[in-house]
Write a structure and sequence with these properties.
The structure holds two protein chains of two kinds. Chain A is built from eight helices and 13 strands. Chain A is α/β, with parallel strands linked by helices. In chain A, the strands form four sheets. In chain A, strands 2-1-3-6-7 form a five-stranded parallel sheet, sandwiched between helices. In chain A, strands 8-9-10-11 form a four-stranded antiparallel sheet, with no helix packed on it. Chain A has a two-stranded antiparallel sheet with strand order 4-5. In chain A, helix 6 crosses helix 8 and helix 7 packs across helix 8. Chain A starts with a strand and ends with a strand. Chain B is α+β, with helices and mostly antiparallel strands. Chain B folds into three domains: 150 residues, Beta-Lactamase (2-Layer Sandwich); 105 residues; 151 residues, 2-Layer Sandwich (Heat Shock Protein 90), CATH 3.30.565.10. Chain B contains eight helices and 14 strands. A five-stranded antiparallel sheet of chain B has the order 4-3-7-6-5. In chain B, strands 9-11-12-14-13 form a five-stranded mixed sheet, with helices on one face. In chain B, a hairpin with a 2-residue loop joins strand 6 and strand 7. The longest helix of chain B has 49 residues. Chain B is rod-shaped. The chains are: A alpha/beta, B alpha+beta.
Chain lengths: 221, 458
């Protein structure tokens, strides 16, 4: 996906760009409102991440101008302020969602998905591999016309695999990607989810194979 | 809030002073009317007595050196005929008694006047005596013919008593009339104060605008200082709000950088023990940012509960909002948040605070539940109460003394490993109290925690 990140703190912007880049997203960075408006005028973004405190004005003014311009690109506000005080007005001004810093990227991903799903996602999120069609937004697997709805964790696990076919993922890395850091998750849990995905993949020519001692990978027969 | 230190009352003082002066004027009125009236009564009696005495004197004739007096009937009859008054007279020539009542007290000295008056006692009764004299020349000698006429004081006293009653009536009447006027004056003097009080107390909690209603000149300094106080309050409130926002910004942005970099590092690091340290780092960052967040939220909640908004809050909408907000978080763990049996209920209060309270509870329920379970919310109403019940299927509360969990920085015994600050339930408790409601913590029969938020319905 293509993101526009409007954030005046360069160090944070750089980190967020690196982090989102790891999941295969393309991120443009605007450090003030003027630059942001230039970017949005020339490029179509899937999602805008907007900081509220900016050097040349309040992010809220961008929000109201963005909405007044009939743009449909969803905006997720990243705020450093107290949730209680900031909630007022933000959603009224047309933000689709908001997150309090520091950002939990799994949560950001989930919120992006929810926002895009609410907008009625387009076919651009569909990835094909062999006989398989995967819609990451809707969370569906389609094998020769048969559609399966994935649960969130199954979906996120499959997303990891399909974004990097043939790459080996260790169980411990998968635990980190799939579970929040305060959850007591064992590597056995990964085996359970891999087992479920294998059942969903029956009938396609795509499979998750175990690489002994190293982990799992997704490959096509 | 502590009541004001009350000393005295403007209204009472005003009324007391007005009544005091009305009383003094009333008494003065009584005394003046009384004394003028008795003086006039006395004078008229004296005039009648003098006229009577003179008419007797006028009937005296000197014939051949003899004085003869033909006592006119009317002279005395006009004195005793009307009332039960008794009249006396005495006629003396020089110092010799000629006729009448001999013992009637004599006047002392005329001192050059023709008529003198005196009060005396005669035959056991108080009498008023008028004496008049005229000089005659009898056989070459000058002789003084002196006539004294006396009248008892019964009639005068009756008149005086009536006068006294009337003047008392006038005095009391004046006092009562003044008292009523005093009350009305006090009322109308106090009215601008009442109006000012009302216009200030009717305001909403966040309304710190200066008082614009017209006030009398004397109250202008009060309003000026009230306005300046509100101005300063407004300034300090916005300063502290600004400070809180600024503080959050300063703390959270670096935390966000550290957390993001830590996540990136975790992706790149291969060695298990290094990964473990980075995981610990991220947990610590989450813990501190969450604590910072809740401290700020707590400050904001305290501020807002001190100035509680009074808006209509639809509890159903509130639940729907909070559930929608937390949906992505719950989905991450494959936890479904189910809204069951919702009955319509609205309460009055601060929507943002209530949202924060419910958010805290629901966030807890999701946090302490294991994956692929269900969190159920229901809203039920009775005649006087609305209850929101949030039940999860996690480990439940391990302590029997659930009250201590509401205290600041108290955390449950099974909280190990879950990021938390121990302020969440304190915030909820404070919000509930501010709305006249309460929070109860219990465990479900089938396991899991159950939190009940009870709101009074008005």
């Amino acid at each position: 996906m293509r993101f526009l990140l409007i954030e005046d703190n360069d160090a944070l912007a750089k980190a967020v760009m690196d982090r989102l880049g790891m999941d295969g997203h393309v991120v443009d960075h605007a450090e003030d409102l003027a630059t942001a408006l230039e970017f949005t005028a020339t490029t179509d973004y899937d999602l805008i991440l907007l900081d509220i405190m900016l050097p040349d004005g309040d992010g809220r003014s961008f929000l109201s101008r963005h909405r007044a311009g009939k743009s449909l690109t969803p905006v997720i506000v990243l705020t450093a302020r107290s949730e209680v005080s900031d909630r007022v007005g933000m959603l009224d001004l047309g933000a689709d969602d908001y997150m309090v810093k520091p950002i939990d990227f799994s949560e950001l991903e989930a919120r992006c998905r929810a926002v895009l799903r609410r907008q009625g996602g387009e076919a651009r999120n569909v990835i094909s591999m062999g006989k398989l069609e995967f819609d990451s937004l809707a969370g569906t697997l389609k094998i020769e016309g048969d559609e399966t709805q994935l649960r969130t964790r199954e979906l996120r696990l499959f997303e990891i695999f399909i974004n990097a076919p043939n790459q080996i993922f260790s169980k411990s890395k998968l635990v980190d990607r799939l579970f929040s850091y305060d959850e007591e998750a064992s590597e056995n849990a990964i085996e359970v989810y891999v087992g479920r995905l294998r059942r969903h993949l029956v009938g396609s020519n795509v499979m998750i194979t175990t690489v002994r001692g190293l982990g799992y990978k997704l490959e096509q027969e | 809030m502590k009541g004001p230190n009350i000393k005295g009352s403007i209204r009472q003082r005003l009324v007391a002073m007005l009544l005091l002066s009305a009383g003094a004027i009333g008494v003065l009125l009584y005394v003046v009317v009384q004394s003028v009236a008795s003086q006039i009564a006395q004078e008229s009696q004296d005039n009648i007595l003098a006229a009577s005495a003179i008419s007797i004197l006028d009937s005296a004739r000197v014939q051949q050196g003899e004085i003869s007096i033909d006592l006119p009937y009317s002279a005395l009859s006009m004195l005793d005929s009307v009332t039960d008054e008794r009249a006396f007279y005495a006629i003396r020539l020089n110092d010799d008694f000629l006729s009448g009542y001999e013992k009637l007290p004599r006047s002392q000295d005329f001192e050059g006047r023709d008529t003198i008056f005196q009060s005396a006692s005669y035959l056991g009764q108080d009498v008023r005596i008028a004496s008049t004299r005229r000089s005659y020349s009898i056989e070459g000698n000058q002789a003084f013919l002196e006539v004294s006429v006396a009248q008892t004081l019964t009639g005068l006293n009756q008149t005086l008593a009536r006068m006294s009653r009337i003047s008392l009536g006038v005095g009391v009447g004046f006092f009562v009339f003044s008292a009523v006027i005093a009350m009305l004056i006090a009322q109308s003097t106090i009215r601008p104060l009442h109006r000012l009080t009302e216009s200030v107390s009717r305001r909403g909690p966040a309304d710190l605008r200066p008082v614009a209603a017209p006030v009398p000149q004397e109250m202008a300094p009060l309003v000026v200082s009230l306005n300046s106080l509100m101005g300063r309050l407004q300034k300090s409130l916005s300063q502290s709000e600004h400070f809180i926002a600024e503080a959050a910004h300063r703390v959270r942005t670096p935390l966000a950088i550290v957390r993001t970099q830590a996540e990136i590092t975790l992706r790149r690091v291969e060695k298990e023990e290094n990964r473990k340290s980075v995981r610990e780092m991220i947990r610590a960052i989450d813990e501190s940012s969450r604590t910072a967040g809740q401290l700020l939220d707590h400050a904001m909640v305290t501020f807002r509960t001190d100035n509680l908004a009074d808006e209509t809050v639809d509890l159903h909408d509130l639940i729907a909002d909070v559930v929608a907000r937390l949906k992505p978080v719950s989905e991450l763990k494959d936890i479904s948040v189910v809204i069951q049996s919702v009955e319509p209920a609205t309460i009055r209060g601060d929507a943002i605070l209530l949202q924060s309270a419910l958010h805290n509870i629901l966030d807890n329920a999701i946090k302490y539940s294991s994956g692929q379970t269900e969190v159920a919310i229901s809203l039920t109403t009775s005649a006087r109460m609305a209850k929101i019940v949030i039940a999860d299927s996690g480990a439940g509360f391990q302590t029997t003394d659930t009250k201590t969990l509401l205290k600041r920085y108290a955390r449950g015994e099974n909280a190990d490993g879950v990021v938390g600050s121990g302020l969440g339930l304190t915030i909820v408790d404070e919000v509930m109290r501010a709305h006249g409601g309460s929070i109860q913590l219990s465990n479900n029969d089938g396991g899991g925690a159950c939190v009940t938020l009870s709101f009074p319905l008005h």
